[in-house]
Amino acid sequence: MKSFLKVIGSLLAVFGAVISALAVFDKFANKNRIKGDYLECDIENIEE
Prior knowledge:
Layout lengths: L1 H28 L19
């Protein structure tokens, strides 16, 4: 039973490390993205 819990703990640790690495990568990859609401637009009517 202890070995099973060690395997589950190891898998959770690896999963957490991968998620953290993706979050850090996303933060550095999208430094210049627009924060907040949408951009203001000067066009009054947009027709499709």
